[in-house]
Structures are given as C-alpha cells and as structure tokens.
Amino acid sequence: MARIPAAERRAELVAAAVRVIAADGVDGATTRRIAQEANAPLAT
C-alpha cells in the first residue's frame, strides 16, 4: 500500500468524522467507526 501524505490523510479523517457524526451523532462517532469510514487503519 502506498503511503498517503499526512495532510491528505488528515483531510480524509476529518471528512469521515463529519459523515459519521451526521449519520450516527456524536455518541456514535468512535475512533473505530471514523477510521472504518475513512478506510484508514485504526492505528492512524
């Protein structure tokens, strides 16, 4: 897998967080759920 620049990864995670919060609310916005939405490894 190619390395994604930090700024791009950060933007993907922020966008994923917004989508998860919109869909599931703040209580549903877990780190695991956001990483899944962003197609990022949980350790990111």
Give a quick precis of the structure.
With 44 residues, the chain is an all-alpha fold. The chain has helices spanning 6-24, 31-37.
Please provide a written account of the structure.
The chain has two helices and no strands. 59% of the residues lie in helices and 0% in strands. It has helices at residues 6-24, 31-37. Helix 1 (6-24) packs across helix 2 (31-37). The longest helix is centred in the middle third of the chain and has 19 residues, at 6-24. With 44 residues, the chain is mostly helical. The chain has one domain (6-37).
Number of E strands? 0
Task: Estimate nothing, just give the exact number of structural domains.
Answer: 1
The main β sheet shows up as: none
Q: SSE order in H/E notation?
A: HH
Based on CA atoms alone, the radius of gyration comes out at 10 Å
Structure class = mainly alpha
* Helix fraction bin: 55-70%
The number of distinct helices, counting runs of at least 4 residues, comes to: 2
Query: Termini separation (Å)?
Result: 14 Å
Outline type: elongated
Uncertain runs: none
Report the sheet-strand fraction: under 5%
